[in-house]
Amino acid sequence: MESFVQFRIARPTDNLALLEQFYCNGLGLSKIGDFTGHRGYTGIMIGVPDASYHLEFTQHIDGSPCPAPTDDNLLVFYIPDKKQIDIIETRLAAMGYLAVPPENAYWQEKGATIADPDGWRIVLMNTKGI
What we know:
The chain has 130 residues and is α/β, with parallel strands linked by helices. Helices cover 22% and strands 35% of the residues.
């Protein structure tokens, strides 16, 4: 097995500020880095401090359209404490992001599915993961 030291999930957007609010203020992740003016790109890295993985969102000066995929393409956050899920879901609802029915009913059994500002879906799953 290879020894990877880090991985990043990256995607373009035209809603950089809204995504930062959604993932940091709403979901409770941290902005762990950012950049501006890199060949016309501005970007932010969001994740858990000191983790070997994070999300990156980039926006190009000429636009960065990236249509949301199907309703069953998901970013799943496993959160064993149901109270934390309730707090996050309430905070996101106050920001205008309400739970939506998932494509696959499995995710509704122990989770809440919410679309981010670009329409990409996250799941707050009330289990400890795999």
